[in-house]
Structure formats: structure tokens, C-alpha cells
Design a protein that fits this description.
single chain; two-stranded antiparallel ribbon; 7 helices; mainly alpha
């Protein structure tokens, strides 16, 4: 009977010993396993170290109002017109500025007319076909841009080269197309939108002001 008790006691002691070893082993494992440590970014804000996380992207969309749709359509139309006409305005401006420069010291009327006619043929040959394909709206934008490139409105240019009567005729034609050859160019005012698009075109295609 005593032997049986000792045997049972021995078994209990062995079980307790095993349990103690297992507990100790688990404790050591918990302290050393890398699975217990999570490495994360952090930032210091006002002296406190805070966890830094990148939040998932959230897409936000809304239906445009009728006014926004209208404004977007107007902007797109204007942008397209500037992209189409600015190269013509840039080239025409260069030719007209060159003509003005060459005529600076020419005082003889006949000599001026002869020179202007020779350059007029150059302009017609280069621009007649492409310009006839422009819409009325694009034509208005082109006149604005020519003013920008030369510093003169189209009426003044035509009057200088072709005379006042011709200029008044073209002014009348422009009126019927709801346009105006005398229209100014205000880069910081009414024409700020055109100017913004022009600068965009210049950056994209390497034009110089």
C-alpha cells in the first residue's frame, strides 16, 4: 500500500515537473520569437512617437452640375482653338514684325508698296489654305493671338498695309461674323484664359515668347 502511494506521488511530481518545464519553455519562446514583434514606421510629432501608416486610397466622385458641364465645354472649345491657331499667329506675327522692321527706314511710298506686295504674296501662299478651314470662332481667337504677337490689332495692321478703305471693309465683314478687328488683347484681364493656354502650348512645343 505504501509502495502504491509512493508511486502515485512520484507520478504527480513528475507531471508537475514536466508542466513546470513546459511553462518555462513557453515563456522563453514568447520572449525570443520574432512573431511577437511587429516592425512599423513611426513619426515624431510634438515630441511624441506615433505610428505611421499609409491609408488605403479612397475614390470620391460626384456628378457635375449643368453649369460645370457648360464651363468645361467652353474651356475645351477655347483650348482647342488656341492649339489650332497659335502656330499660325506665331508665324504671321514673325512675318508682320519683320515687315515693320524692314519698313522702318523706308519712306518712299512706292518702295513701301512694292515691298508690302512682295511680302503679301508670301503670306497668302503660306496661310490662305489653312486659314480658310478655320471656323468663325477660331478666326476670332486667331485675331486675338495676332494682336498678342505683334502688339497691334488686325484693323491697324490691315490699315497700315492695305489702306483705311480696305481695313473698314474687313471690319464690316468681321462684324457680320460677330467679331471685331479692333479687339484688344488683355493677358491679365479678359484674355487671361487664352494666355494660360498659350503658355501651355509654348511649354509643350518649345515656343519662345
Amino acid at each position: 500500500m505504501q509502495i502504491l502511494k509512493n508511486s502515485v506521488f512520484l507520478k504527480i511530481v513528475v507531471l508537475l515537473f514536466i508542466a513546470a518545464l513546459a511553462t518555462k519553455s513557453n515563456a522563453v519562446f514568447a520572449q525570443t520569437t520574432p512573431a511577437d514583434t511587429i516592425v512599423t514606421g513611426a513619426v515624431i510629432y510634438n515630441g511624441d512617437t506615433l505610428e505611421a501608416k499609409t491609408l488605403a486610397e479612397v475614390a470620391v466622385s460626384a456628378q457635375l452640375t449643368a453649369r460645370q458641364i457648360s464651363n468645361n465645354a467652353k474651356w475645351t472649345r477655347l483650348r482647342n482653338a488656341v492649339y489650332v491657331t497659335y502656330p499660325y499667329a506665331k508665324r504671321a506675327g514673325a512675318v508682320l514684325n519683320d515687315i515693320n522692321l524692314k519698313l522702318t527706314n523706308v519712306t518712299d511710298k512706292e518702295a513701301r508698296k512694292t515691298y508690302i506686295k512682295s511680302r503679301e504674296k508670301e503670306l497668302k501662299k503660306e496661310f490662305t489654305d489653312p486659314l480658310t478651314n478655320l471656323s468663325v470662332y477660331q478666326g476670332k481667337v486667331l485675331m486675338k493671338l495676332i494682336n498678342r504677337e505683334t502688339g497691334n490689332n488686325c484693323y491697324e495692321i490691315i490699315k497700315e498695309y492695305k489702306g483705311g478703305l480696305t481695313a473698314r471693309f474687313y471690319q464690316t465683314v468681321a462684324f457680320f461674323f460677330d467679331s471685331n478687328l479692333r479687339q484688344p488683347y488683355d493677358a491679365t484681364g479678359d484674355d487671361a484664359a487664352i494666355e494660360k493656354i498659350v503658355l501651355e502650348v509654348q511649354r509643350m512645343y518649345g515656343y519662345r515668347s
